[in-house]
Amino acid sequence: MDDQKKMAIIATKGTLDWAYPPFILASTAAALGYETQIFFTFYGLQMLRKDLSGLKVSPLGNPGMPMKMPFGPKWFRDINWNMPNAIQSLVPGYESLATVLMKQTIKNNGVASIPELRELCQEAEVKFIACQMTVELFGFEHSDFIDGVEYGGAATFFEFAGETDICLYI
Amino acid sequence: MDFDKELDARGLNCPLPILRCKKALNDCTSGQVLKVVSTDPGSVKDFAAFAKQTGNELLASSEAGSEYTFFIKKK
């Protein structure tokens, strides 16, 4: 066995905020010399789609998410616009609005976009494996996903995960 | 301090300064020194950790105002 460190991640979430941890950790691990794989399953498959515009962030039922404006003077930016779930759920487009604001905040803070981080992972030879069972379960086609993705099941994941130094479920 | 290459990572946030640094080091030859300037306060600890784990030597790390400068010698 070689002595290269290895990391495996299972990515299960399909929202904009939860797309960050797998791609940040995988790209950084690769930069530190880890051989890295991400196994995308269930909603995590959204992160492999050619079109990532479906990744959204929802403040609904998410009390940990501050709702702040990414523009205007500081006193205005500091206001937290959180409102009760019942009201959020009635406002059409509230999720889309929150996503637009979040993307702007991300940009303002010099944080990379998800397409950028995903590309950095691919450049660094992070291996992407999509769970074939959930691809079929959700009615996806391989053509919905970017090139370079491998398709496999739980046994495929364990083949690599069993030899890793770090293994995360996100 | 003398350096061979410079990387401007100002305005970038975690993990971009480290990823760009890694990329820039790929274009250096062994023994060359890369200067990195960053504005991410987290990068102080991150560059030390990066150097320790990759074997590239962090020759100097300094702070001036809200800018952080690192000199990294490629392994």
Which helices and strands appear, and what pairs or packs with what?
The complex is a heterodimer of chains A (170) and B (75).
Chain A: E1 6-11, H1 16-31, E2 35-40, H2 74-77, H3 85-90, H4 94-108, H5 114-123, E3 127-131, H6 132-137, E4 150-152, H7 154-161, E5 166-169
Parallel strand pairs in A: 1-2, 1-5, 2-3, 3-4
Helix pairs in contact in A: 1-5
Chain B: E1 5-9, H1 16-26, E2 33-38, H2 43-54, E3 57-64, E4 67-73
> Would you state the CATH class of the domain at 6-54 and 113-169 in chain A?
Alpha Beta
**CATH fold annotation of chain B:** Translation Initiation Factor IF3
Report the average pLDDT across residues of chain B: 95
**Major protein interface:** A-B, 12 and 15 residues
Contiguous runs where pLDDT drops below 50 for at least 5 residues of chain B: none
- The separation of the N and C termini of chain B measures 18 Å
Notes on the structure:
- The complex is a heterodimer of chains A (170) and B (75).
- Chain A has helices spanning 16-31, 74-77, 85-90, 94-108, 114-123, 132-137, 154-161; strands spanning 6-11, 35-40, 127-131, 150-152, 166-169.
- Chain A has a domain at 6-54 and 113-169: 3-Layer(aba) Sandwich (Hypothetical Protein Ychn, Chain: A), CATH 3.40.1260.10.
- A 5-stranded parallel beta sheet of chain A has the order 4-3-2-1-5, with helices on both faces.
- The two termini of chain A are 27 Å apart.
- With 170 residues, chain A is of the alpha/beta class.
- Chain A is globular.
- In chain A, strand 3 (127-131), helix 6 and strand 4 form a beta-alpha-beta unit.
- With 75 residues, chain B is of the alpha+beta class.
- Chain B has a single domain, classed as 2-Layer Sandwich (Translation Initiation Factor IF3), CATH 3.30.110.40.
- Chain B has a 4-stranded mixed beta sheet with strand order 1-2-4-3, with helices on one face.
- The longest helix of chain B has 12 residues, at 43-54.
- The mean pLDDT of chain B is 95.
- Chain A binds chain B through residues 24, 27-28, 31-33, 109-112, 120, 124, and chain B through 11-16, 18-19, 21-22, 39-40, 50, 53-54.
